[in-house]
Design brief:
Blueprint lengths: L1 H5 L10 H8 L7 H20 L6 H8 L3 H7 L3 H22 L7 H18 L1 H13 L1 H20 L8 H20 L7 H12 L4 H8 L31
Helix pairs in contact: 2-6, 3-4, 3-6, 6-8, 6-9, 7-8, 7-9, 7-10, 7-11, 8-9, 8-10, 9-10, 10-11, 11-12
């Protein structure tokens, strides 16, 4: 146990302030069981970030949380269940804040570009968090399923507005998700050139049927603020259904 303690992961670097706020906002009062689950999820994030989801163990999660392994199993049947809950937590907090920043944008194409750029922005601002998100997304299908609902709404809106022309929704979502995830990975590892986020967003828009000039113009528009107190950009639009989504930058 002492050897394991010596190799425990350090705390995760902080997220950009608006996203950190989304994760620390006051939650409804929780009972003891809910508080314990929240502590275990926080500990799992530390371990997954340091070890990777595949190499992490329940014993390490328990040690970081200051609890016993049996306590972990009292709340989660398997490590896979821990991974799924971490994925849902990320989707319901981090991704929702990014999506909420687009609430006043009426253009499906612009919403798509903002989403793509914000996720790349996250990779620029906090590489460890971006890499954690990617790792969990591969292991927790629920995260991708929830995130994909936001992309699908924007995709359908762009098609309805005549900005996108696609062969199928499934193929378009593969294009969006695959391109943005690879861009996040490249940026987080320091392998992407300056301006990569806007270039990636423009490339996705081109793949969805927009002209080069139109795609480039939309991809270069200023990003709306992430501050939840800031007024929404553009024309107000009806609130979207509650389901988290992916996003990127600049």
């Amino acid at each position: 146990m002492d050897d394991m303690a010596k190799s425990l992961p350090a705390s995760m670097p902080p997220l950009p302030a608006p996203l950190a706020d989304a994760l620390t906002q006051a939650a409804p009062p929780m009972g003891k069981r809910e508080r314990t689950r929240a502590q275990l999820i926080a500990a799992a994030i530390q371990v997954f970030a340091a070890r990777g989801v595949g190499a992490a163990t329940v014993q390490e999660i328990a040690l970081v949380a200051g609890m016993t392994t049996s306590t972990v199993y009292n709340h989660f049947t398997t490590k896979d269940e821990v991974v799924q809950q971490v994925g849902l937590w990320l989707a319901q907090t981090l991704c929702r804040r990014i999506s909420d920043s687009q609430r006043g944008i009426a253009s499906g194409a612009e919403r798509m570009a903002i989403g793509n750029r914000r996720y790349t922005w996250l990779a620029e601002q906090s590489p460890p968090w971006a890499l954690l998100l990617l790792d969990v997304a591969l292991a927790a299908p629920q995260l991708l399923e929830q995130v994909q609902q936001y992309a699908l709404e924007d995709l359908r809106l762009g098609v309805k507005q005549g900005r996108f022309r696609i062969a199928s929704e499934a193929a378009a979502l593969n294009l969006i998700n695959g391109t943005v995830m690879q861009a996040m990975h490249s940026v987080a590892l320091g392998l992407a050139p300056p301006g990569h986020a806007s270039a990636v967003a423009a490339t996705v828009l081109r793949g969805l049927g927009m002209s080069y000039a139109a795609a480039a113009a939309v991809a270069r528009r200023p990003l709306p603020p992430l501050d939840p107190q800031a007024p929404p950009a553009g024309n107000p639009r009806a609130p979207r259904k509650k389901a988290p989504r992916r996003s990127s930058s600049a």
